[in-house]
Design brief:
It holds the Pfam family Methyltransf_16. It comes from Urochloa decumbens. This is FAM86 N-terminal domain-containing protein. The chain has 365 residues and is an alpha/beta fold. Helices cover 40% and strands 17% of the residues. The strands form two sheets. The chain has an eight-stranded mixed sheet, with helices on both faces. Helix 1 packs antiparallel against helix 2.
Length: 365
């Protein structure tokens, strides 16, 4: 019993640390801190916060304002509950307030460094619960200003979990993502052994941030005439792609086996262009795909296939996509229930995976 309790306590603290690194909202961090303390933020938990939320390994890239906000809310909650705030936490918070304007890099509020840790779905104890993959990302915290391409969306997390849950679908395949944003899906595709990963976006600032994120994860950005990169297994292509302007000849050299997209049905104006691009990528010279499965298998295909994860925020926009897809002779099947991915992100309380739908799209013969 004691061992089981210790294991559960260690797992709760692990979730707390990973949630912080993932940049979860302060309210979620406090909820996990309470859980780790058995209902309140104890001195033990406060010490854990200080040890794991500060120091050069964290603050060097983590948004300092974010950390300070968490400490402020922890102190306020403990004081309101008549609990004991440890002296070291008071001192750390006071020092942060005094040096608030000292380092302009740490006080950047437009971008925030996050580490998204996908936990292994099978384990015997906390020490053997290995982290499958860690994605290091620079993300925008400025969505209200329209900087959505550099933000982290639930559909991107869901599609990443799907890739990690079914690695054989993507292993040794050429994978092409539309609207890649921060590049999280590409990092997971590289991890499961995709033969080629092509990430695209139609916004130049998003593309620049995406390339920086690939470098953060030690992935090489493929360039022409680079023999070193051609030999590297950890490489991706980051390409500018405007759905409105791209032609079939522009896409002729790619011939992807799998096309992916996360939260790319956001504007009814762009839907016809999205469907046109999907049609071109799925109609690759009548080529037969290599995805195999048993008869009736959810992943059995006879040609290129697209997997699109989306949150239906506007029914009119989704219906517009469904009609445009049908007119273009695309089959769009909802496989959310039958192909539900494993939960690799139990520590990310803000991630509502139940809101995401997964579509499998193929070209009708």
């Amino acid at each position: 019993m004691a061992d089981a309790a210790a294991q559960e306590g260690a797992e709760q603290l692990l979730h707390l640390k990973l949630a912080f690194l993932a940049g979860e909202p302060p309210a979620c961090i406090l909820a996990l801190a309470r859980k780790a303390g058995g209902g309140s933020i104890t001195s033990h938990v406060q010490n854990f916060l200080l040890e794991n939320f500060t120091g050069t390994n964290v603050d060097r890239r983590q948004n300092s304002t974010y950390t300070t906000t968490i400490f402020k809310r922890v102190i306020s909650e403990v004081e309101l509950s008549s609990g004991v705030v440890i002296d070291e936490l008071y001192e750390e918070f006071a020092q942060r307030m005094l040096s608030k304007a000292k380092d302009s890099l740490l006080n950047r509020t437009d971008y925030m460094y996050k580490e998204i840790s996908f936990l292994s779905s099978t384990y015997d104890n906390v020490s053997s619960r290995l982290i499958s993959v860690v994605a290091r990302l620079s993300c925008s915290s400025n969505m209200l200003e329209g900087d959505t391409g550099c933000s982290l969306w639930p559909s991107s997390l869901f599609l990443s979990e799907f890739i990690l849950s079914y690695p054989k679908i993507f292993s040794t395949k050429c994978c092409f993502e539309l609207g890649s944003g921060v590049g999280l899906v590409g990092i997971c595709l590289n991890y499961v052994g995709a033969s080629k990963v092509i990430l695209t976006d139609g916004d130049t600032s998003t593309l620049a941030n995406m390339k920086e994120n690939m470098e953060l994860n030690n992935l090489c950005i493929e360039q022409e005439d680079s023999e070193v990169l051609k030999e590297s297994k950890n490489k991706v292509e980051c390409k500018y792609l405007s759905w409105e302007e791209v032609s079939e000849s522009d896409l002729r050299g790619y011939q992807p086996d799998i096309i992916l997209g996360a939260d790319i049905m956001y504007d009814p104006v762009s839907v016809p262009h999205l469907v046109r691009v999907l049609s071109m990528l799925l109609r690759r010279d009548g080529r037969q795909g290599e995805t195999k499965g048993k008869s009736g298998d959810e992943f059995e295909t006879e040609g290129p296939v697209a997997y699109i994860a989306t949150v239906i925020r506007n029914a009119e926009t989704f219906n517009c996509f469904a009609k445009s897809a049908a007119d273009a002779r695309l089959s769009a099947i909802n496989i959310t229930s039958s192909a539900a991915p494993s939960d690799f992100l139990p520590h990310m309380l803000s991630y509502d995976r139940s809101s995401v739908q997964l579509l499998k799209i193929t070209l009708l013969s």
